[in-house]
Amino acid sequence: MPHVLIVDDDTNTREALAEITGAEGFTTAVAGNIREAQEQIARQRPDVVLIDLKLPDGSGMDLFNDIEARATTEIVLITGHASVETAVEALRLGAADYLTKPINFKRLKALLSRIPRTVDLKEEIGVLRSELRRLGHFGQMLGAAPAMQKLYNHIGRVAPTEATVLLLGESGTGKELAAQTIHELSLRSRHPFLPVNCGAISPQLIESEIFGHEKGSFTGADRQHKGYFERANGGTLFLDEITEMPVELQVKLLRVLETGTFMRIGSNQEIDTDVRVVAATNRDPEQAVQEGKLRLDLYHRLNVFPLRIPPLRERGADIELLAQHFLDELNAAHGTQKVLSPDGLACLSNYHWPGNVRELRNYMQRAFILSDHTIDAAALAPVITTQSPVGLTLAIPVGTSLADVDRKLIYATLELCGGVKKRAADILGISLKTLYNRLEEYGPYEPGAHKGTETPMQGGTDSYH
């Protein structure tokens, strides 16, 4: 039976927490200060520790370093003096969550329900994950490069907590896979993981999709609809391209994050939700704030634990690892045994992959179709040279704003593709909807008006960073 340690100097609070945790199937021990808590930890290692922030002989956070086997002990900070800074610091130290006084017992029960009941199983899973990580596998993610190992370390630390995560990175780097890995390594893994692309939903429908609506609340609402926050209850909601969400809807999102409640369209009844939010953007969020695309208060609320996903060009040998992985998937799906030749691997490794992992996956699928048995440079070269800007670079002066870089890259790619927006979106690694949004912001593409921004590529390397 799992064991919980309750550390609080208020007798009534200790008794109430002991009653609730006992009813949830935990054995309990209590302490009124840090010294008593240390004695209890020495007697029996707890699976969960509920720690009051302010104790007679110090801060509850001082107890963090006294708890061994932190990978198998969930720490929840309890405070009557909540602040964003305190909560963020607790989460970064390794707390799974924090509760404010008076304690929301419904939220506490939801948290306790996610605690694994078998400690030995947790330790075995931890060992298995360490071995897989060494081999380049981490949850849904694949890669052994130092940049990826650093990312895995950060994900491993933040996943078991309730911290809101903001994923930053270029299109095609695998932000959704990172979000799914965070979910799978969290205490919410048995509950839904729902991804939402904010740039792919019509502005007229996105509020209904996220929060739901009642029957008859607007024309065409012929039945009640449960939104993503309701369907993801207990799990994780991944909000991709968060800067594409209408600003007026960002206000409602902020309220849900702060209160844990929302209302369907056409209703005045509040609904409780227990959802962890992971957001992502391929833009510079601070630039998006300056441009009015992202509310500053929402940015601060989402930016509790930012994570940068490295582009493929910074991952070295991962290109070969990923290419072989995609080929293995294709062989398994089609019952074939096609192989990559050494010159084919070299062709892939020498390319700078502006569309990142998504672009590599698409290339491997095209080369697989074009090849009989061996995928060599001859099979890959036509794909690369005709479908991507491998022969061109952009000359970007130092000091150019990210918005201008984004605009120039989009126009140059459209120029290369002869104005075919679908092909340009594929190369850029963004959805067609996002490309249209950017063109609406930057102004329409005019054929021939943007020539002269490209220069010949020397040696097939990337000239902008």
TrEMBL record:
<feature type="modified residue" description="4-aspartylphosphate">
    <location>
        <position position="52"/>
    </location>
</feature>
<dbReference type="InterPro" id="IPR027417">
    <property type="entry name" value="P-loop_NTPase"/>
</dbReference>
<dbReference type="InterPro" id="IPR009057">
    <property type="entry name" value="Homeodomain-like_sf"/>
</dbReference>
<dbReference type="GO" id="GO:0005524">
    <property type="term" value="F:ATP binding"/>
</dbReference>
<dbReference type="InterPro" id="IPR002197">
    <property type="entry name" value="HTH_Fis"/>
</dbReference>
<dbReference type="InterPro" id="IPR025943">
    <property type="entry name" value="Sigma_54_int_dom_ATP-bd_2"/>
</dbReference>
<feature type="domain" description="Sigma-54 factor interaction">
    <location>
        <begin position="141"/>
        <end position="369"/>
    </location>
</feature>
<feature type="compositionally biased region" description="Polar residues">
    <location>
        <begin position="455"/>
        <end position="465"/>
    </location>
</feature>
<keyword id="KW-0597">Phosphoprotein</keyword>
<dbReference type="Pfam" id="PF02954">
    <property type="entry name" value="HTH_8"/>
</dbReference>
<dbReference type="InterPro" id="IPR011006">
    <property type="entry name" value="CheY-like_superfamily"/>
</dbReference>
<dbReference type="InterPro" id="IPR001789">
    <property type="entry name" value="Sig_transdc_resp-reg_receiver"/>
</dbReference>
<feature type="region of interest" description="Disordered">
    <location>
        <begin position="445"/>
        <end position="465"/>
    </location>
</feature>
<keyword id="KW-0547">Nucleotide-binding</keyword>
<keyword id="KW-0238">DNA-binding</keyword>
<keyword id="KW-0067">ATP-binding</keyword>
<dbReference type="Pfam" id="PF00158">
    <property type="entry name" value="Sigma54_activat"/>
</dbReference>
<dbReference type="InterPro" id="IPR058031">
    <property type="entry name" value="AAA_lid_NorR"/>
</dbReference>
<keyword id="KW-0805">Transcription regulation</keyword>
<feature type="domain" description="Response regulatory">
    <location>
        <begin position="3"/>
        <end position="116"/>
    </location>
</feature>
<dbReference type="GO" id="GO:0000160">
    <property type="term" value="P:phosphorelay signal transduction system"/>
</dbReference>
<dbReference type="GO" id="GO:0006355">
    <property type="term" value="P:regulation of DNA-templated transcription"/>
</dbReference>
<dbReference type="Pfam" id="PF00072">
    <property type="entry name" value="Response_reg"/>
</dbReference>
<dbReference type="InterPro" id="IPR003593">
    <property type="entry name" value="AAA+_ATPase"/>
</dbReference>
<dbReference type="Pfam" id="PF25601">
    <property type="entry name" value="AAA_lid_14"/>
</dbReference>
<dbReference type="InterPro" id="IPR002078">
    <property type="entry name" value="Sigma_54_int"/>
</dbReference>
<protein>
    <submittedName>
        <fullName>Sigma-54-dependent Fis family transcriptional regulator</fullName>
    </submittedName>
</protein>
<dbReference type="InterPro" id="IPR025944">
    <property type="entry name" value="Sigma_54_int_dom_CS"/>
</dbReference>
<keyword id="KW-0804">Transcription</keyword>
<dbReference type="GO" id="GO:0043565">
    <property type="term" value="F:sequence-specific DNA binding"/>
</dbReference>
